[in-house]
């Protein structure tokens, strides 16, 4: 039998065998989760070796007597490359989820351009799980997307003027059991001029009032008993109005506030001591019905 015929027969037989391996490898790669699950003869190295033999055989068989060696070498190199490609692992690589923190997202949930569930109020809880949509920016929320209510009084922290109310105590819309003394809201001596520290305290009061737009408030000024009744009444009115004006400058609507001066009429401590008089000089915040 001639050299060319023998080489082609050997090559043909090996091609058939390699095709079977490649086909089997392709099916396995679609079913297996990793290349280590494939049979030994399906690995690219084995297929490459078989391809090298096939290519070398064909190259030898089809070359002239003068270039048998170079023909076999060229065919072997080409066959090895083709065999390796035929048996290459084509198992799709797993795609990492774009929003792993959300877990599995139900079908039909609206997503953004990155494939993440929409979070319209930006509170970190996606809309499809958010039980309190529309939470103001920057407000801390729980796992359900609802603003925190640390004392569980029904008034969320970002609106609560009395955030540490004891459990079970009934509160008003401000989150307070009764009127609340605005601690450290003080004035310059014998005037209605707010101190810098008082303005700092009122900034927080104003922020909570702005976030609680359906509530109206009464701002009530009080003095100790020193001085005449009329003088104290006027001074307390001016101080209450000073607080209301400052809150208005921080965004609280003026029609939500009233300023009332009670002078020395409603002491909460004895005017016989300095400590008592200090307690009586105060501004209170109450719900205005």
Automatic annotation (TrEMBL):
UniProt keyword annotations, A-Z: Cell outer membrane, Cell projection, Cilium, Flagellum, Membrane, Signal
OmpA-like domain residues: 174-289
GO BP: any one term: cell adhesion
GO MF term set: calcium ion binding
Signal peptide: 1-24
Gene3D superfamilies: OmpA-like domain, TSP type-3 repeat
Compartments where located: Cell outer membrane
Pfam families referenced in this protein's UniProt entry, alphabetically: OmpA, TSP_3
Domain of life: Bacteria
Main location: membrane
A GO cellular component entry from the record: cell outer membrane
PANTHER family registered for this protein in UniProt: LIPOPROTEIN YIAD-RELATED (PTHR30329:SF21), STATOR ELEMENT OF FLAGELLAR MOTOR COMPLEX (PTHR30329)
Protein name according to UniProt: Flagellar motor protein MotB
Lineage: Bacteria, Pseudomonadati, Pseudomonadota, Gammaproteobacteria, Oceanospirillales
